[in-house]
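Hello Y.,

Per our agreement to keep a running log of every chain we model this quarter, I'm adding this entry. I've kept the format consistent with earlier entries: sequence first, then predicted structure.
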Amino acid sequence: MNKTDFLLVGVGGQGVLTASDIVAEVGMALGLDAKKSEIHGFSQRGGIVDSHVRWGARVAAPMGEKGNIDYLLAFELMESARWVEYLKSGGAVIVNRQRIIPLSASAGDAVYPPDEAIAQVLCARTDRVIYVDGLEIAKGLGNKNLANTVLLGALARELGVDPEIFLDVLVKRVPQKYVEENKQAFWKGIGK
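Predicted structure for the entry above:
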């Protein structure tokens, strides 16, 4: 494996940084070098959060360049379109269907694009668009905060990585009282 680039994007409070930590640790568990970089400016106030993760035999820099990301994991629908230019042609984008309307759109200063417009932007870049109802699945499990784990399950499926490797890392990263529900969310994301 030369290198695999991941870009995880969303809105503060969605668990983007925790998920990127897990992706980086899974790379190391696979015996690869892994690096991570994150930007979370106003994440505490619902701002945009992005994190790059890179796996490879030897990794010097953590950030993938525009047009070279293998996997874009978008925790919020519009963020998938905002960041899709980073995805390489033929790369995979895993999109949580959750819509978080920004204050500018709520105030009438901007418009949140319709789902069809977002789908067009994504499909113009790749035919590997995987939609996940992460928030709805998480709510069905009784905890909306599990949506990031659902998306990690979808990523594991797309990567073809042994799910047990993801689960081993996940169990070490979440508080003990949330382990079982995170396992359930992960398997739901895989599709089981």
